Structures are given as structure tokens and as C-alpha cells.
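Review form for a predicted model. The reviewer records the input and the model, then writes brief findings.
Reviewer: anonymous (R2)
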Amino acid sequence: MNAYALWPRLANYRVDNNYQKSTWFLQDASFIRLKNVEIGYRLPDNLAKKAHLTNLRIYVSGTNLAFWGPFKLWDPEMAGNGLGYPVQRVINVGLNIGL
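Model under review:
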């Protein structure tokens, strides 16, 4: 038996070392995520009135835009379920017009 083996031994019988508590498979899953952002611009009233509008606003918003962290196998917010459906990135562009 090799005390410095890197991986558990594959066997069709019980290998006691494979059942010992270990931190070998633990990963650092600390991360920072840019969760929500919205940027908008409202046209000044004098320009909106020239276009016969009471207001005009253009905006872009996004969810889950960026992720920084050392764990790259799957999204850490999915916890141990790396085979699940990942968190989606959503980007919206909009226009609010007041007549």
C-alpha cells in the first residue's frame, strides 16, 4: 500500500484507504459575480418635445454578466451539481417612450 498515492485505488473489493476522511477532492469555490447592472439615458425634455414626446429613455440591463474565481469546472452557485443547468447570462435592451 502506497501512503502517498494520488488517487483512490480501483478495486472490486473494499479498500479501507478509500473510505478515510480526506480533503483531497475539496476545491476553493470562492468567487465574485457581477449579478445585475442597468445603464440608462433619458433624453432631455427640450429634445423630447421637439420629437413630440413627453419622455424618451434608452436602457441596457444585464444579469450574470461576469464571474471571477479560481474554480473553472462549473458555476459555484450550482454547488456540487456540475451536471445541472447553469446560471444564464441575460442582456436586455429597451426603449421607453412617453407620448
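Findings: Strands lie at 32-42, 55-68, 90-98.
Further findings: The first strand starts at residue 32 and ends at 42.
Recommendation: see findings above.
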